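User: Hey, quick favor. My workstation is busy. Could you predict this chain's structure for me?
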Amino acid sequence: MQRLITPHPVPEIMLAHKVFIGIGSNIGDRLGHLQDAVYQLALLDETSLCAISSIYMTEPIGDTEQHRFYNGVLLLETSLSPEELRLQCKNIERALGRPDFYSRWSPRVIDLDILLYDSTLIHSDTLSIPHRELPRRKFVLIPLLDIANPLHPVMQQTILQLLNCCPDRSVLVRIKESVKIKKKTDSPL
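Assistant: No problem, here it is.
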């Protein structure tokens, strides 16, 4: 048996993973915060921003004595690992003014959640993919359905099927304004 020896190493093929990220804000310039987060995500190495849903105004969950949220969903293609992407999302949140420690369901300048990463299943102390609340949150299901109808890898149902049996009875209002997709060569906001 002969082995082929090449004079130069063959570069690895970059794999592009399809990732859906939920975005939300309910403090200050909500649409501006979403735009800033989208722009920062579009700047990530080895990542392309492919689509963004409409933006919806939604009621807060838990502590309802706070402003309404603006929520949406992005589709990225990336070769970053799930953990690398999570760290980048946390860095963007921090850069936009979100504290490292906060109480659950508290108001927030920006919230970035990895909802789906291909059909990957991860449940660790720092990351859960698919996002645990995905099947129970209309403010994620409806914007996600704006751009795709993927299969939930655990429940083996499409996003539309999950929406049809979702227990969440909240009302979403599509806002007229939208978040624009900027190219990496565009000037910052």
